[in-house]
């Protein structure tokens, strides 16, 4: 239990509960945002996704190349 700040001595730190209170459930019913700001946000997100897709494609290509190089070498007798 905490003391009101006016009743606390100078330099005292209020005590915190050992466990925080249970979270109150919240339901979002509406988001009030202008249409063109929403369009701008999605446009920026689409532009930001292009370099991310290129980076993911390069990583997948390198990993697939490593896998196929090792499996292909084993399959065709290059590692005997």
Brief summary:
This protein is 51% helix and 0% strand. The longest helix is centred in the last third of the chain and has 41 residues.
List keywords for this structure.
80 residues; mainly alpha; 1 helix
Tell me about this structure.
The chain is mostly helical and 80 residues long. The protein is 51% helix and 0% strand. The protein has one helix at residues 35-75. It is elongated. The mean pLDDT is 81.
| Helix content bin | 40-55%
Give the termini distance in whole angstroms: 74 Å
Mean pLDDT: 81
Count of discrete alpha- or pi-helical segments spanning 4 or more residues: 1
What pattern of helices and strands is seen along the backbone? H
Low-confidence stretches: none
How many β strands by DSSP?
0
Q: Estimate the global geometry from the Cα principal axes.
A: elongated
From the alpha carbons, calculate the radius of gyration and give it in angstroms: 29 Å
Strand content: under 5%
Q: Helix- and strand-based class?
A: mainly alpha
State the major sheet.
Answer: none
């Amino acid at each position: 239990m905490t003391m009101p700040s006016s009743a606390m001595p100078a330099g005292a730190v209020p005590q915190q509960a050992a466990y925080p209170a249970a979270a109150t459930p919240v339901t979002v019913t509406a988001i009030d945002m202008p249409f063109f700001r929403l369009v701008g946000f999605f446009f920026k997100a689409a532009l930001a996704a292009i370099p991310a897709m290129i980076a993911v494609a390069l990583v997948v290509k390198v990993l697939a190349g490593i896998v196929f190089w090792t499996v292909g070498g084993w399959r065709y007798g290059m590692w005997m």
